[in-house]
Amino acid sequence: MNLxxxxxxxxxxxxxxxxxxxxxxxxxxxxxxMAVKQKNGKKENAFGIGLVAVLKPQxxxxxxxxxxxxxxxxxxxxxxxxxxxxxxxxILDVNWKGVNVKxxxxxxxxxxxxxxxxxxxxxxxxDAYIMDFEMKKNExxxxxxxxxxxxxxxxxxxxEQKKEDLKKxxxxxxxxxxxxxxxxxxxxxxxxxVRYAKYAELSKERLDKLNAWDVPYGAKELNDLRKEVASAGxxxxxxxxxxxxxxxxxxxxxxxxxxxxxxxxxxxxVGEIIMEATEK
Length: 280
Fold this sequence. Notes:
By secondary structure, the chain is an alpha+beta fold. The protein has helices at 2-9, 13-19, 22-39, 46-54, 56-73, 151-187, 192-211, 220-244, 254-278, and strands spanning 90-91, 94-95, 100-110, 113-121, 129-137, 143-148.
């Protein structure tokens, strides 16, 4: 363990690979992830499950590249100046950038195989989780991590917690969303020369409300989608209001048409997430 930590600290990729069998570790991890997704098949998007299977080689390669990059640079970001800096690194439903090692829980030796238990903190789970790393002995007597034996259990816990987070978030926001929708319905009966201004106003109000909401970690995707829909609504309906109060001779800009399509797609995804989270 100390040799592995030293390799990471010194950004020594070659030594890191001596103590971590990346091919075995990543292959087992992806397989375990797919097994959990299949187990939850009735609750998960079937297309998404199939897509993961088809993209397994790309996902495996990407995960290996991210690990090597992290060791080489000391950061999960490949380019600190890029737009991806400070964003979560989510692979196989795990925000790896947010996972922190609290302590070594155990080290069990079973001949040429040992098990290392690391207590981890993750933003996706309320409690720490002990992840079990299987290690095999190298010829020189050192150890090499080959797999995470309980990664499937870890993913299952994340999925279950995410559903609980979603249920809580949906219940907490229901009163406001219902009220905003009711006022939206009332606005739909207004004359078109004032209707779109009201739509833009309601979209801005919803955006501000969602920006200030205390969102459970597992519901961040849903809240972000809702904010994107609201933000697009502000822009789209502000334009619609100007157009409706003009001579209407100018064609609708391409970017507005594209943004309207994207907004509708994201709004549909919001509905799908809510339906999946609340189904029994």
